[in-house]
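Shipment paperwork, digital attachment
Item: protein structure file
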Amino acid sequence: MTDANGCWDWERISHFLPECILWKFVGIKPPLMQFGSDLPGWRWEQNRCFTTKSAYDALSAPSGPVVDFKWASIWNLHVPQRVKVFLWLSAYDRLLTNSERIRRHIVAFDRFPWCQVYAESLNHV
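Attachment content:
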């Protein structure tokens, strides 16, 4: 879909896409041939072919910054069980705060019930 100069071939593209989509292309650089052909492929394999093993490896690999909480550090504390559960839920961002309840359409307001100033997020709790 590019011409000999490496620019978008508007003549060819305009036959396939409506004008509203073409205007979105204006801000996108065309693919550069020096990086190879622009073909879809599985990004987790060198040969760009899908394998079940690569999908499993991609899904089981930790993504993003991993919070380094160990089970033992929470569960071996000498505190009541409900405190351990609260700490574990907090550590893994699993508390059902009002911000999460609003996202799930369970409540109408996300304000913290005691101060009524800030949204009840995990940081505020």
